[in-house]
Amino acid sequence: xxRQEEEKGILRELGGWVLYILIIIGLTYLIIxxxxxxxxxxxxxxxxxxxxxxxxxxxxxxxxxxxPKRYDIIVFPYQHEENTFYIKRIIGLPGETVQVVDxxxxxxGEILSSDVYGAEVMDSPGIAATPIxxxxxxxxxxxxxRNHSSDSRDASVGVLKRENLIGKAWxxxxxxxxxxxxxxx
Length: 185
Known about the structure:
Elements: H1 2-35, E1 36-40, E2 55-59, E3 73-77, E4 85-92, E5 97-101, E6 104-107, E7 110-111, E8 132-133, E9 138-142, E10 160-161, E11 167-174, E12 180-181
């Protein structure tokens, strides 16, 4: 009788651990799917804000409640290569007209005066040589390292639909000496 009680206690303990592990796996799945995910910066298109090898946490929750803003650093899938994601900065918002003239960005005919991110003059306007009228759910993005970035000026990237924005870069978790919340404005 005592042995049966002992076996029941062990099974109860084991069942508790299995339930605990299943709850942890479920919560991890929910967080990764709906709240945030880790991503790694590869390349120099966002320098000096983000560098090659930086590890970030992407906030996937904010854009469920608020609209993306100008200068937000966002993550989106590259449409021509599976499991490849780009990190760029929002420059043009829905309903605006964006154009690159003589290496400078114009939004609705006005030079983007607070263009402190990517202050270098752009060598190529790409498809933004002519005005691009953004639809009600479209965004124009640029890398901070303008002359070394594949962004909305490139036809292979183009303008982004709202549904393609995975989230907003939120926290740099590596390298540890740069650990902290990412400044967007």
